[in-house]
Amino acid sequence: MRTLRLPWQLAAWGALSGRERRRRLLNVTMFGLTTLAAALTVLPLLLILGHLLRTGLAAVEPSLFVRGPAPPGQSGGGIAHALVGSALMVGTAAVVGIPVAVGVGLFLHENRRRAAADAVRFLADVMNGLPSIVVGLFVWATVVLRMGHFSGLAGALALALILLPLVLRTTEEMLRLVPRELYEGALALGAPGWRATLAVVLPAARSGILTGALVGLARVAGETAPLLFTALGSHFLTWRLDRPMSAVPLQIFVYATGPYPEWHRQAWAAALVLLGFVLLVNVAARFLIRPPDR
Amino acid sequence: MHVETPRPVPPVTGAPRVDTPVVLEAVHFSFWYGATQALKNISLRIPERRVTALIGPSGCGKSTFLRSINRMNELLPRTRHSGDILFHGQSIYRPEQDVVQLRRRIGMVFQRPNPFPKSIFDNVAFGVRVNGLARHRTELEGIVERSLRAAALWDEVADRLHDSALRLSGGQQQRLCIARALAVEPEVLLMDEPASALDPVATQKIEELIYSLKERYTIVIVTHNMQQAARVSDYTGFFLLGELIEFGRTEDLFTNPHDERTEAYITGRFG
Predict the structure, then answer these.
(1) Is the pLDDT of residue A59 over 90?
(2) Can you give the pTM of this predicted structure?
(3) Which end of chain B is more exposed for a tag (fewer CB within 10 A), N or C?
(4) Of the options 1.10.10.10, 1.10.3720.10, 3.20.20.120, 1.10.600.10, the CATH number for the domain spanning A65-288
(5) Which residue in A160, A214, A159, A179 sits closest to A291, CA to CA?
């Protein structure tokens, strides 16, 4: 850790030339500005976390995790139905989205010098920038209208569509980071190209891909917009994906905009739970980045 | 399959008389990366069960030539070649040549040890499994042990075969890579500066290993270390700017070079 001494506190300050003094002053100024920028970046997160802890922590009690909603206006109740809904939909999105994303990532890696890969990569980037509410509308038009009702499955598909471009790009990046010598080493042993990729390169990139998938899952777990007219939300606990379903962010939206103080309390608590989950996943992902077997 | 037909070796200018059958032969072989010509009209013969060293300054084409022998270069975009390389008298570029099969018969050890991020056992077993060379587990274990013994690594790893290969030292990793190459029973072993990333003790072990391996394998080794070439090889080729300047018995080339550029290089006047 370097300690910053102000330039004029240096013993030799008086002996320095004007040019030297200017250089040191500039150094201190720039160091100060970049530190300020860093602080401004971290500050909002700390403020959010602090506020959530202050307002939400009091409402985080065991019943929050095991009870469904209480009748409007009454106290008690919880968000168990939203937790179950989030887990089911995010889980389904993972099962549907991650294998496809890894497959496309492999396709991009294998065909990296072909125009097809450039096209797919570009479209994935466009898809990544798609407003999530548009994804929700798309799933509403294609799935919800056709099925005739809102469902957790439609919500999961919307989440999978958001997850797909995220995980596919990290997969490609992670495959690209695997040293070429590993691929060539496998070829030199008489392995066909596909075998070298699947048996050597993909496992070598495994922890990175897993990390990308986890971060992607944490991101979609907090999505509200794509669920609004797909999963819709529900006041009842259900395990059936063909029914309308609640999710934690949806529940926060409903409770926060509702008229009852008890709902507001629980919205803060749910927000804290959601944020805690996202932080937890990010910390877990950080540990996964370490290379395997070391 | 290996056909035991000793090819008559006509006295080409600069070509040494070889006392064993020719396994690999380059015939007016040239190679380009895009517009850059990396190899110019290389012709040489590599004899069976001998160590052939390729020396020369950086960028002289010796590694390119080595990587042409198992067709590893063509993975790069915009490469092309002219002339030919013959393996047991047959072109490695002929259309019906299966390149995967070619690479099984011509193994390769790379400059930087490149063990897979798997266990020691799985590293050696990889090629065996890929090529379906073992019918059952016991046979596979036998092959793994034999290969590790042949690479002089068995005694150091026998009790930790299922540890990660990445935990081994650099020298051990390189011997593991040699064991891995031997496990698929190649005829030729290509070594691309196999000791350049290793310390002197590990280097010496690799050199002793090369010396023992030539009883069974044809070895082509690229090295920028002339002492190493002189110590381990029977034949030496000197490359300069993409050309093969001189090729001959190692002792002849080092004691009585025909070309003044060879002499200048081995006496350390450039390079």
Answers:
(1) no
(2) 0.82
(3) N
(4) 1.10.3720.10
(5) A179
